[in-house]
Amino acid sequence: MNTDHADPEELAALRAAFDVDDGGESALGWEAVHAFEAEHGIVLPEPYRTFVAEITDGSYSGPPDYGLLGLAELPHDRGDDEQDRDLSKPFPLTKMWLWEDDPRPSEELDPILEQVFGHGSIVLGTDGCGMDWHLIVTGPHRGHIWNITGEGADPFGAEFGLTTAEPGFAGWVRHWAANKPWYDAE
């Protein structure tokens, strides 16, 4: 997974998976991507960066179940918490965490949860019921995809044990395009 340079083969696979043939009209363009990055103090990981600049900024065809959100969008069930998000601060997790089973008091957990939901990630979309897919844009897991729910969070990719998929945005999309269940590891 190379988060600094777009692989032409990955970009071709992304174009094919989303079947976007509008001459780039649904893409943001590089000027808008650079403006978003400057506003938030980040550089988006590749190949997602090139994807939103040149291919499309969101898609009803998915992934996930309710479609891929545009770069600056949040799922409708999230409300208006954009003001609490800080993409330039590192995403705090590096391994699965089921906070629903964490015995620590809420006074300890709440500040960490605020960071999980508000720091260092953009929301790619939702599978409904608060099950959101995030692309990590800052921190040790930059470029990885995480599934964050009301009960816990887990990273996506074979190296984490829950799926056979490659990590990162391209691996996540390829897994979806192959019509595989998200969690297909035995």
Helix segment tally: 5
Bin the strand percentage.
5-15%
Largest sheet: 4 strands, antiparallel
Architecture, CATH level 2?
Answer: 3-Layer(aba) Sandwich
Give the overall form: globular
What is the CA-CA span between the terminal residues? Answer: 23 Å
SSE string: HHHHEEEEH
Strand arrangement, major sheet: 1-2-3-4
Count of the separate structural domains: 1
CATH class: Alpha Beta
Percentage of helical residues? 25-40%
Low-confidence stretches: none
Write down the overall mean pLDDT: 91
Q: Specify the structural class.
A: alpha+beta
**Gyration radius, rounded:** 16 Å
At CATH level 3, the topology is SMI1/KNR4-like
Count of DSSP strands: 4
Organism: Streptomyces himalayensis subsp. aureolus
Protein name: SMI1/KNR4 family protein
Pfam families: SMI1_KNR4
Domain Knr4/Smi1-like: 31-148
Notable characteristics:
186 residues, Knr4/Smi1-like_dom, globular, SMI1/KNR4 family protein, four-stranded antiparallel beta sheet, alpha+beta, Knr4/Smi1-like_sf, 5 helices, SMI1/KNR4-like
